[in-house]
Specification:
- The protein has five helices and 24 strands.
- With 374 residues, the protein is mainly beta.
- Strands 1, 3, 4, 5, 6, 9, 11 and 14 form an eight-stranded mixed sheet that branches. An eight-stranded mixed sheet has the order 2-21-18-23-16-15-13-12, with no helix packed on it.
């Protein structure tokens, strides 16, 4: 080639490609209905027909979803079912409404089937074919799928690779008892203990180990679901109490499981704090934006639980920020280099607001043991 000649691009119709987002382009092609907001009520969100699953669905993009995860809700009509599907992205399914079953096809022609109901949580091992069935003839079933689809599609930008791949990940299939609601407890330390399984029948009933470092007598348990790189945990706040403020990476999708209350979020910029309040109600999902402080407050007459799902698990942290968090920053005082705000350092307005809210319920506050400065 003559050095004086300009470089010719391959093909006369070459299209300049710059700052592409294959995931968002794919959504448009799929005809997906997308709901956006700081928080979204999935139970009230409109759905439309999605051919890929052969059922109604809607995508949910909350503001702090980050680059790795998003949610789609599958809306199965009474007696309905999805078509069999498989995919090269991880998917944690939380049942918001209804009863039904899942059939998972294993190598060699075997099949696992398990039944789920409201507040079940499960994950199908990577790239195994599965089908969802609504067990009611009169009510819909709504399942919230938190997935790594955005990251995976943006990484490979090849739809066929994600949905038509024949590879079997044998190491992810797991023990047969993991499909029956059983599992293995893996003891690490408070706030890091794990329950390894593929299926949790009811998040309101599973026993949670104490995590006193997070404050107010709370408890928490992480899940190792289908040997995934995604993370999930359930935490509980006792009656008439609230947790310590904290911060973490974005993409942590939080669902209220039971009870009632709210989460306050704020950016601490030069002491100028503007609070954002997200109420707890079954069906609402939100994700705190990157390193945005937030604090969970229970106003119910019973303990309140919530589910959090993110990228980077206790087993496979993937990122330095997740490794450092699980390694100690998650429940270490920000004054000592961690990501937690101790009660004595919290904004007094947060405590006063909570006292006003809980007074409306007629519940006697039970924070004197923990909050002594206000």
């Amino acid at each position: 080639m003559d050095d004086d000649q300009p470089l010719q691009l391959m093909g006369a119709d070459h299209e300049k490609k710059f700052l592409l987002d294959p995931y968002l382009d794919w959504l448009k092609k799929e005809g997906a209905l997308v709901h956006e907001g700081f928080s979204v009520d999935a139970l009230a969100a409109e759905t439309n027909f999605w051919p890929r699953y052969d059922c109604n669905a809607a995508f949910i993009h909350v503001r702090g979803r980050g680059d790795y995860l998003s949610v789609y809700a599958l809306d199965l009509k009474p007696g309905g079912k999805t078509r069999p599907v498989k995919h090269i992205y991880e998917c944690f399914i939380y049942v918001l409404q209804g009863h039904g079953s899942t059939a998972v096809d294993l190598p060699g022609g075997k099949r696992h089937t398990f039944e789920w109901g409201p507040k079940s949580l499960f994950a199908v091992p990577l790239n195994l074919k599965y089908q969802l069935f609504n067990g009611s003839g009169s009510e819909r079933a709504l399942l919230a799928c938190t997935t790594s689809l955005p990251f995976t599609l943006n990484l490979f930008h090849d739809e066929g690779f994600l949905f038509d791949n024949e590879y079997t990940f044998m190491g992810r299939i797991g023990n047969s008892k993991y499909y029956e609601g059983d599992g293995d407890f893996i003891s690490i330390k408070a706030g890091r203990h794990m329950w390894e399984t593929n299926f949790v029948p009811d998040l309101t009933q599973i026993e949670l180990p104490a995590w006193k470092e997070r404050g107010a007598g709370g408890s928490s348990l992480a899940f190792a679901l289908a040997d995934a790189s995604m993370h999930a945990h359930v935490s509980q706040i006792p009656t008439a109490r609230y947790k310590k403020g904290h911060r973490h990476a974005d993409g942590v999708h939080i669902w209220a499981v039971d009870g009632s209350g709210y989460t306050m979020l704020w950016h601490d910029v030069n002491g100028d704090r503007e609070f954002i309040e997200v109420p707890w109600r079954h069906g609402i999902v939100y994700a705190p934006p990157y390193m945005m402080f937030h604090q969970h407050f229970n106003t119910a007459r019973q303990p309140a639980r919530y589910l959090a799902i993110s990228m980077g698990s206790r087993r496979y942290p993937l990122f330095r920020i997740k490794r450092e968090s699980a390694g100690g920053k998650v429940d270490t005082d920000i004054k000592k280099g961690g990501n937690q705000v101790e009660y004595e350092d919290q904004d007094p307005e947060l405590h006063q607001r909570w006292l006003q809210e809980i007074a409306r319920t007629g519940i006697e506050p039970d924070m004197k043991e923990f909050v002594k400065s206000f």
